């Protein structure tokens, strides 16, 4: 039997987005309701996979090590709820990559590695570039709206990951 998965963008979904990049543990602020939401999804049998662009590495703002430290911190805080983190360190200013969203390569790798059933899975993001690669692969999409009436090709719009989890689990 194939696995079902909730793919998650990181910045703006798990932790508060920061225009100056989030790469210091002390600036990694977990959004309220995120850990309970992830627990509900995990208990319902979903794999939880983060797919995140980290172009600050290509730009020389921070290092791979900083990304690992933030993810280790979240693992400790959440009790290891995330199955895997895929991140793209690239940026078109230095190197083009199919992994950087809206490219779909990180999703494709995860789907192959974990034998994921797309039809039973979801992508939750806060930017259109999170939604586009998932749409391309026919993964149902949920946009966490930062501003009201955002134009999006996502199937659903919600205000938080907690609300997305309720939608996925049909509790609303
Ligand atoms: Mg984001």
TrEMBL record:
> Alphabetically, which GO biological process terms does the record hold?
carbohydrate metabolic process
Domain of life assignment = Bacteria
Q: List its EC numbers.
A: 3.1.3.-
A Pfam family (short name) is Hydrolase_like
Which GO cellular component terms are attached?
cytoplasm
- The site feature described as Stabilizes the phosphoryl group is recorded at 52, 101
**Cofactors (names):** Mg(2+)
Enumerate the subcellular locations listed in this protein's record, separating them with semicolons: Cytoplasm
For the ligand (Mg(2+)), the binding residues are: 9, 11, 126
Q: Which InterPro entries match?
A: HAD-like_sf (IPR036412), HAD-SF_hydro_IIIA (IPR006549), HAD_sf (IPR023214), Heptose_bisP_phosphatase (IPR004446), Histidinol-phos (IPR006543)
Site annotation (Contributes to substrate recognition): which residues? 100
Q: Which GO terms describe its molecular function?
A: metal ion binding; phosphatase activity
> Where does the record place the catalytic residues?
9, 11
Q: What class of enzyme is it?
A: hydrolase
Keywords tagged on the record:
Carbohydrate metabolism, Cytoplasm, Hydrolase, Magnesium, Metal-binding
Stated family: Belongs to the gmhB family.
Write down what this protein is called. Answer: D,D-heptose 1,7-bisphosphate phosphatase
Gene that produces this protein: hisB
